[in-house]
């Protein structure tokens, strides 16, 4: 069984046409099954909103499978948050987000199958921006739950439905390690937020952790391989320059 993934993160509105063309070439040449992003696609800040984000013009045609919510992609108010992520042509994942009024523009998880029949579960987690403990909760339509608690709920469920469980994380590398240690059963964490360029995957138990850095300089190319449908995955990866 082989699954190949390509990951970007923390673009911050920067995906020029030449970088998008490089991603498209990598996707084709490497036989990539899933292209994903780990959040902070847009350039506007946490409380900002720009009606036009040029990054979507190069991001969407690439055919992303899913993206996580980054802090820059979010907002205090649901109506603005929805406008910020509405241009995304792919599902937007955030399992630890509760929208207290109105429609939630995100999904908790997504299950996709490769051409060879490998079932892959993706779920998203992001850094909690508004929590029950914060006074600002009274000003916001959104509430973010503790990522580790949410992961403990979702991972056993996803393990029953998929061969490979992948977390699209916008929590930062330190928290990715803590979460992997606290929540067994995640095969791969494709992380962001801390802008660290991991040229080879980190390991926490049986979980591989990858991060491509920020501003569209690199993408992570990951291969997950195993014999049959049982046993641990052999996960390898490296960074590919987009410049």
Annotate the secondary structure layout.
Blueprint: E1 2-8, H1 17-29, E2 34-37, H2 55-59, E3 66-68, H3 78-85, E4 92-93, E5 97-99, E6 109-113, E7 119-126, E8 142-144, H4 147-161, E9 164-170, H5 173-182, E10 188-191, E11 202-204, E12 207-210, E13 218-225, E14 234-241
Count of individual domains:
1
Name of the CATH architecture: 4-Layer Sandwich
Overall outline: globular
CATH superfamily: Metallo-dependent phosphatases
N→C terminal distance:
32 Å
Q: Kindly report the CATH topology.
A: Purple Acid Phosphatase, chain A, domain 2
Write the H/E string, N to C: EHEHEHEEEEEHEHEEEEE
Query: How many DSSP-defined strands?
Result: 14
Radius of gyration: 17 Å
Question: Would you mind describing this structure in some detail?
Answer:
With 243 residues, the chain is α/β, with parallel strands linked by helices. It has one domain: Metallo-dependent phosphatases (Purple Acid Phosphatase, chain A, domain 2, 4-Layer Sandwich), CATH 3.60.21. It has 5 helices and 14 strands. The strands form 3 sheets. It has a 6-stranded mixed β-sheet with strand order 4-3-2-1-13-14, with helices on one face. A 6-stranded mixed β-sheet has the order 6-7-9-10-12-11, covered by helices on one side. α5 links the parallel β9 and β10. The radius of gyration is 17 Å and the shape is globular. The chain starts with a strand and ends with a strand. 43% of the residues are buried. The model has no long low-confidence stretch (mean pLDDT 93).
